[in-house]
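User: Can you predict the 3D structure for this chain?
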Amino acid sequence: MTDTNMAPIDRIRRKIAARELVVGTHVSLLDCSITELLACVGFDFLWIDTEHSAIDKGALQHHLIAAQAGGAAAFVRIPWNDPVLAKPVLEMGPAGIVFPMIRTADDARAAVSACLYPPAGVRGFGPRRAVRYGVTPGDQYIREAAASMWRIMQIEHVDAVNNLDEIIGVAGVDAIVVGPNDLSGSVGLLGQTQHAEVVKLCDRITEVALKRKVPFGVSIGDDPVVVKRWIERGVDWIATGGDTGSLMAGGRHALDQAREFRSGTVKSCMKR
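Assistant: Here is the predicted structure, written as structure tokens:
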């Protein structure tokens, strides 16, 4: 099978197996053309956030189509660990679904169950885009659905760190991802992600993930020092920066450059 014909999540798995870093960025704006643009940049995946953004179900489907058009896998973070919230997202066929604030093995089991058909889980049957609107036979999709995407548990609370071995041990957990900001908040240090206590928790997550050989990633901004530190820890995949930050940085650069050039021109003219 060629790379272009390979399922998006299988391309991710292949890169990790080859010890290549998988890199993505965050999407939170409504315009799906931004998603297509970022996919065309060459990111391996796009983290489409429905927890902290205005992206609703209709907009989400457009983002998934745009990600595919640009050649990127799509990971969708849902607002909460709730099968009602997971169901319509699953029917749209993302490459991965991120369950936030997983704190215990029971939380992880509930998340996995929401993604699997009976008897393994509680997912109701009604795929739409996931079966390419009917091109993929229903019986084939039932056989392949569990392997066609990642079920990702977000580790962002001290309780999750303490229960990490049990969480990773839940059958059907495909990957974990660290959320440093909420993790810092869970120990009374919100936003202080480089505080020694928070760093210790992140190092513990790394230790367990590497020992258990579960694909693990991190969701962070684009601070080069922080990005480098996580790559040195040994993450398999990283979601860094995002649409809003990229637009802000690009806009500021263009504005500052024009003002700088204008200032230089004025000073040059004044010397004549």
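Residues 168 and 213 are 10 Å apart (CA to CA). The beta strands are 22-27, 45-49, 73-77, 96-99, 150-155, 175-178, 216-220, 237-242.
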